[in-house]
């Protein structure tokens, strides 16, 4: 299977796993730019999911399992032996779906601002947003959609960059992405994880509050939990240095595991 995903690769010669970076709803691969700058020695693969950025717009909503198939096709195409998927918000559900389905190549998983499932309130909000942008374009949900995600964050250059890219995206593509997660439930995937996990919450996240991240953490057999007090809904974007440092510490934790445990979660492209 040939991948359909637009992507960028920072390839390094080290033997460690590549970071497979999955953006949140409404984002694209540039979401990870600042974090990647703090990982100069690591191989990083940032993707545009279908309906985002430079990737194709599908005819219907795409499930987390379908996104996971896209990611696996890309990994194989790039010839990468092992990965650590890192997702934010809805992207964390996709990262978990990938890790649960491909334990032979996943060394660990990082879930930022995650949730077990889409709540009734979130379902209503997402359906309303999809209807609004279909009728009035992306501007119909601005600035509210951005400001809630950036609660208690400065309206600085980082905010403005994200706002601009969000506003410029295809409205129908965004609507399809929102509708895709109305009934999303990551519980089974999270319970199936057998690799180490890092769960990161944002102290000011009102869309997926820290208690949801703690519920995710409780379902995973081998998981660490960290709260970034000053972040909101997009911890990797809003606190990139702190988030990048947590990931580096997590990678050291993975590498320090006994050889038998590492072997169980290391795969190779054949």
Question: Any overview of this molecule?
Answer:
- This protein has 270 residues and is of the alpha/beta class.
- It has a single domain (6-264), classed as Rossmann fold (3-Layer(aba) Sandwich), CATH 3.40.50.1820.
- Helices cover 44% and strands 14% of the residues.
- The chain has a seven-stranded mixed β-sheet, sandwiched between helices.
- Helix 9 links the parallel strand 6 and strand 7 (223-228).
- Helix 2 (64-78) crosses helix 3 (90-101) and helix 4 runs antiparallel to helix 7 (171-180).
- The chain is globular.
Give the CATH H-level superfamily. Alpha/Beta hydrolase fold, catalytic domain
What name does the CATH topology carry?
Rossmann fold
The biggest sheet amounts to: 7 strands, mixed
Taking the alpha carbons of the first and last residues, their distance comes to 14 Å
Low-confidence stretches: 259-270
Helix content: 40-55%
- Residue-averaged pLDDT: 93
Report the order of strands and helices.
EEHEHEHEHHHHHEHEHHH
The quaternary structure here is single chain
**Cross-sheet strand order for the largest sheet:** 1-3-2-4-5-6-7
Class based on secondary structure composition and strand pairing: alpha/beta
The percent range for strand residues is: 5-15%
> Architecture, CATH level 2?
3-Layer(aba) Sandwich
Helix count, DSSP H or I runs of 4 or more residues: 12
Q: Can you tell me the overall shape?
A: globular
């Amino acid at each position: 299977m040939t991948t359909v995903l637009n992507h960028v690769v920072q390839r390094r010669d080290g033997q460690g796993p590549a970071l497979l970076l999955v953006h949140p709803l409404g984002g694209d691969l540039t979401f990870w730019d600042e974090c990647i700058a703090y990982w100069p020695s690591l191989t990083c693969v940032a993707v545009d999911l279908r309906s985002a950025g430079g990737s194709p717009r599908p005819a219907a909503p795409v499930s987390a399992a379908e996104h996971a198939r896209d990611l696996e096709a890309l990994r194989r195409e790039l010839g990468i032996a092992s990965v650590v998927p890192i997702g934010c918000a809805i992207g964390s559900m996709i990262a978990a779906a990938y890790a649960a389905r491909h334990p032979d190549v996943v060394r660990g998983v990082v879930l930022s601002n995650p949730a077990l499932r889409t709540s009734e309130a979130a379902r209503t909000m997402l359906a309303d947003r999809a209807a609004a942008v279909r009728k009035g374009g992306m501007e119909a949900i601005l600035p509210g959609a951005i400001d809630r995600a950036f609660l208690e964050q400065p309206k600085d250059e980082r905010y403005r960059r994200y706002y601009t890219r969000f506003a410029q995206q295809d409205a129908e593509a965004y609507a399809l992405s929102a509708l895709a997660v109305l009934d999303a439930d990551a519980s089974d995937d999270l319970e199936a994880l057998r690799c180490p996990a890092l769960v990161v919450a944002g102290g000011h996240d009102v869309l997926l509050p820290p208690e949801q991240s703690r519920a995710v953490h409780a379902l995973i057999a081998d998981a660490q939990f960290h709260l970034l007090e000053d972040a909101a809904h997009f911890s990797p974007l809003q606190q990139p240095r702190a988030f990048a440092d947590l990931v580096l510490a997590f990678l050291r934790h993975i590498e320090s595991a006994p050889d038998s445990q590492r072997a169980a979660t290391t795969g190779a492209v054949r």
